[in-house]
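Example 211, ligand zinc ion.
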Amino acid sequence: MNPEELEEDYEERPSFNEEIDSAAIEDAVRSMLVAFGEDPQREGLLNTPKRVGRMYPELLSGYRTDVDKLVNKAIFNVTYDDMVIIRDIEYYSLCEHHMLPFIGRAHVAYIPKGQVIGLSKIPRIVDMFARRLQVQERMTRQIADFVNDLLHPQGVAVVVEGLHMCGMMRGVKKHDARMTTSTMLGLFRKSINTRQEFLDHINRGEAPLRI
Ligand SMILES: [Zn+2]
């Protein structure tokens, strides 16, 4: 793998090397409370700015994930080339248009070409991209590209299902709150049979997505 390639996101935005400014978030939340007409001094709200200031670094930790640490020593050489599928990976993200949650599950598959990654790493890769301000389409693509750049497999497939609070909570439901996005690379794009095998697998026994 080429770490520079994987970290290009970081280089585009050098400010991500610095910690999130929790104090600035606290100030902003205090201003928002005042803008709502609330009293930031009342007991229930007194510590809210501080809580929110501490919360965002966790919700947005994906910008600062140490990629080398994440994949460290978890890539193995193999001779088999059967499809590897990890389905129903829970994720929690924030839509970048409203900063409201969208949550759901991701299904990731790849067909190795000499290398596999430890199974437990795939959910962490999903997390790395989910814990950012996102749009679901881009997150899906980023997960697929990352696995593709990391393992150079014969193909990668990612399907993401999401429920978007910005669609569900707001009065004017302009877009469907439930969304499915997918990215198919390599064999999954070229071969209908391969793609169908993956889709059959993730649809088997699937319960509808709900909160
Ligand atoms: Zn939104």
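Summary: The chain has two domains: 3-62, 72-203.
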